Structures are given as structure tokens and as C-alpha cells.
From TrEMBL:
Source organism of the structure: Vreelandella titanicae BH1
Entry-linked SUPFAM superfamilies: Cysteine proteinases
PROSITE patterns registered for this protein in UniProt: TAT
Protein name: Transglutaminase-like cysteine peptidase, predicted
Classification via Gene3D superfamilies: 3.10.620.30
Pfam assignment, any one: Peptidase_C93
Top-rank taxon, per record: Bacteria
Length: 233
């Protein structure tokens, strides 16, 4: 289903500050992902078949085809292709309905297998796919924001993916709510709180990493561990 036809998601299940607080842990766990060379298509197929059957495997094959089609395209084409792919194939559904948990961060395999997810799941799937297409993590960050609802002053927790042409550049925003990829300055409904990728964690709009994301973000660490098992990394 195209992103433009999604119902606008509500995040009333989370109190914003409580959600952010739950993400942070004490430092010092020191877990590191395996090298990118560990990407294993056959293991991904086996994982998808076991967990989601033929329907999930069909979507995974579409994803492999997307990787092949975009591999030699320019950055803008990769951003558009990946953004559209997940916005069309994942239906926005609250975590409590999909996973029976208040806040679950799915791997791309889980999101594609279910065909459902929320903002974190879109962002993670786009991030991992763009990395597989050769856009390194220095250009990509998942951005946790306060999203204003319509013209009201009500804000909700939300996550988007940002593409940075340089570390200090204004990011392009890939979102599941707004289907077009736009510069951050045009998304006046979003106020960034922090951003992270595989290599660092940044407060607000800072260009200097403050922490190891694997040590400080429990849900990101859990996603990394499951992606290692499934064959992504």
C-alpha cells in the first residue's frame, strides 16, 4: 500500500519522554556487529521460509531484485527506490497489534515477513538496505524526533531516516508518513531529539557523536543481534 494512503499513525501508546528514557542504557556493553561481508542471501531465504513461509519469501525475493536493480544507480535513485519499496510493502500497524509489545524494533526480515510495522521498522529497513547498496553509515542516520500532529501543538514520538551528503549537511528525510524525500528544513513538523547509526549517536543536530549506540540503545542492540542470526550482517 502506498505511504500516501496510510492512515496517519498515532503514538499515544508512548509517553514521549518515557519512550526516550527507555531506549538509553548504561555504557560499557561493547557489542560489535560482524563485518558486512557476513551478508548471506541463502541464510536470509532459509530464515524467511522458516518464519513466514512462501509469502514472506516472495517479498524477500522482491527485495533481492531491488538490490540488483539499484546497485549501479546514483544515490538519489537508490534513496527513492528504497523509500518507495518499503513505504509500499509495509503497512503501518502499532507494535502492540503486530508483536504484542509496546515498542518492538523489527529487523527488515521481520518487517517484510509480516508486511506490517511502525516508524522504527521502516527506518531500520531503509537503513540496512541502503547500506547493502553501498551507502555507508557515515551518510545515514536514524533520527528520533518529536512529530507535531497537523496544526496542533501535540507531539508524538517518531523516527525517520536521514541521508547526509556530508557530516554537517542538512539531511534528506526518508519517512513513512510523507512519501516524498525532502530536506529537513522543509519538515517543520519534526523536531530532532537524537540520531544514531551503526557507528555513533548524536544529540539533537550535533555533528559530533556522543556515545556508542550499541552500548546505549537496547533495542538497536537487539535488532543487530537478530540480524546477525538471520543473515543480514
Amino acid at each position: 500500500m502506498p505511504a500516501s494512503s496510510h492512515h496517519t499513525p498515532t503514538f499515544s501508546r508512548r509517553q514521549f519522554l518515557a519512550t526516550v528514557g527507555a531506549l538509553w542504557l548504561g555504557a560499557g556493553l561493547g557489542i560489535h556487529p560482524t563485518p558486512a561481508a557476513a551478508f548471506d542471501p541463502q541464510r536470509l531465504r532459509q530464515s524467511m521460509q522458516q518464519q513466514y513461509g512462501q509469502a514472506g519469501l516472495s517479498v524477500l525475493e522482491e527485495w533481492f531484485n531491488l538490490l540488483q536493480q539499484l546497485q549501479n544507480q546514483d544515490v538519489q535513485a537508490k534513496l527513492r527506490g528504497v523509500n518507495d519499496f518499503f513505504n509500499r510493502r509495509i503497512r503501518w500497524i502499532d507494535d502492540i497489534q503486530v508483536w504484542g509489545q509496546e515498542d518492538y524494533w523489527a529487523t527488515p526480515l521481520e518487517a517484510m515477513g509480516k508486511g506490517q510495522g511502525d516508524c522504527e521498522d521502516y527506518s531500520i529497513a531503509k537503513y540496512i538496505t541502503l547500506k547493502q547498496l553501498g551507502i555507508t553509515s557515515q551518510y545515514l542516520r536514524m533520527i528520533y524526533v518529536r512529530a507535531r500532529i497537523g496544526r496542533s501543538q501535540i507531539t508524538q514520538a517518531h523516527m525517520v531516516l536521514g541521508y547526509y551528503s556530508t557530516p554537517d549537511a542538512e539531511p534528506l528525510v526518508l519517512d513513512n508518513i510523507v512519501p516524498s524525500i525532502t530536506p529537513a528544513s522543509q519538515r517543520t513538523d519534526l523536531d530532532p531529539l537524537f540520531s544514531f547509526n551503526s557507528d555513533g549517536l548524536w544529540a539533537g543536530g550535533s555533528s559530533e557523536s556522543r556515545a556508542d549506540p550499541l552500548a546505549r540503545l537496547s533495542r538497536w542492540r537487539s535488532v543487530i543481534e537478530r540480524m546477525q542470526t538471520q543473515g543480514f550482517i
